[in-house]
Design goal:
Helix content: 55-70%
Strand content: 5-15%
Number of strands: 4
Low-confidence stretches: 282-286
Shape: elongated
Number of helices: 11
Largest sheet: 4 strands, antiparallel
Number of domains: 2
Distance between the termini: 53 Å
Strand order of the largest sheet: 2-3-1-4
Mean pLDDT: 82
Radius of gyration: 25 Å
């Protein structure tokens, strides 16, 4: 029963993703001749020269990407993506939205928001509405090219062609649409909570650990560093503090570290996904977690007892 509910929720979200993407296309981009990136952008561009509706072009342009996906990603994802693209084409064909605005900046921004929300929600539920991501995965596995770079190069060529054959203005607004779409996809796919990973190396590691637990309540892992070389010369047996925290807390954590050791070496990395642990979620009080300040005192007592 639980699995049935999860599957139902998944397909309902895919249906919503199709509706959002179709609104972005029919109510904003298509009536004004704007493009997005990927297979959708190619389809719109072809439609500018050949009097064929996007609903007929999109499945044909998406087919090579789906064939690549059959040999690259999960076959279940390819099947779901093929069905989603087919339904999106039908919705675009029968949808009767009129252009909401003729303001080019609003078209680029809100068209990108709706399209990005639709594509991102689809990806989150295992369905691809645009095949350029599959091309990126394929070239990454075959030649080791970064997926993001593949998509960027693909769309650079697309927008260059747009500038040459249609107009530079349309190309520039289409680039803006692509940027907004990409940011919204990341926002939907990664989620509302954004996390960073900190690796902290300093001469006062114990004091930093205590301060972070007692003042910030964040969890951490202590990694034993055998040896290191840096601005302070050679260091032996260094404790490296590794912590994952909400980006909202990062400035506060930096301030706490600086109060203890202003010369501490800090590496900050973006975290794409995280599960479990002691993580503070500002948009969900139910899931908010924080370490008790007394946990460090218990740790010190245990160390004294064991020694």
């Amino acid at each position: 029963m639980k699995r049935l509910k999860e599957s139902l929720l998944e397909y309902l979200q895919i249906a919503l993703s199709i509706v959002l993407a179709s609104i972005g296309l029919k109510a904003f981009l298509l009536p004004n001749g704007f493009l997005d990136g990927g297979a959708t952008g190619i389809s719109i561009l072809i439609g500018e020269f050949i009097p064929i509706e996007l609903s007929y072009i999109l499945p044909v342009i998406s087919l090579p990407f789906l064939i690549l996906g059959w040999f690259t990603v999960s076959k279940r994802i390819v099947v779901k993506s093929a069905i989603s693209i087919a339904i999106l084409s039908l919705v675009i064909h029968f949808e009767t939205f009129e252009a909401i605005t003729d303001d080019k900046l609003l078209i680029a921004i809100f068209g990108g928001i709706f399209l990005g929300a639709g594509i991102g929600l689809g990806i989150k539920n295992g369905s691809v509405l645009d095949g350029s991501e599959i091309l990126g995965i394929f070239l990454n596995e075959r030649f080791g090219l970064p997926i993001g770079n593949v998509i960027l190069m693909f769309n650079t060529v697309l927008f260059t062609i747009t500038a040459f054959f249609i107009s530079v203005e349309v190309a520039l607004y289409s680039v803006l649409t692509f940027i907004v779409t990409g940011k919204v996809i990341d926002f939907v796919f990664i989620g509302f909570e954004d996390y960073v990973s900190l690796m902290i190396i300093g001469e006062h590691s114990k004091e930093i650990q205590r301060a972070l637990i007692q003042e910030a309540g964040i969890g951490m892992t202590i990694i034993k560093g055998a040896q290191g070389f840096g601005s302070r010369g050679e260091l032996d047996n260094v404790d490296i503090v590794h912590a994952v925290l909400n980006r909202i807390d990062s400035k506060r954590v930096y301030r706490i570290i600086n109060q203890v050791d202003e010369n501490a070496f800090i590496i900050e990395l973006d975290v794409n996904n995280v599960k479990g642990g002691v993580l503070r979620k500002y948009l969900s009080k139910k899931n908010t977690k924080k370490l008790s300040p007394t946990i460090y005192q218990k740790h010190i007592q245990n160390e004294k007892t064991s020694s």
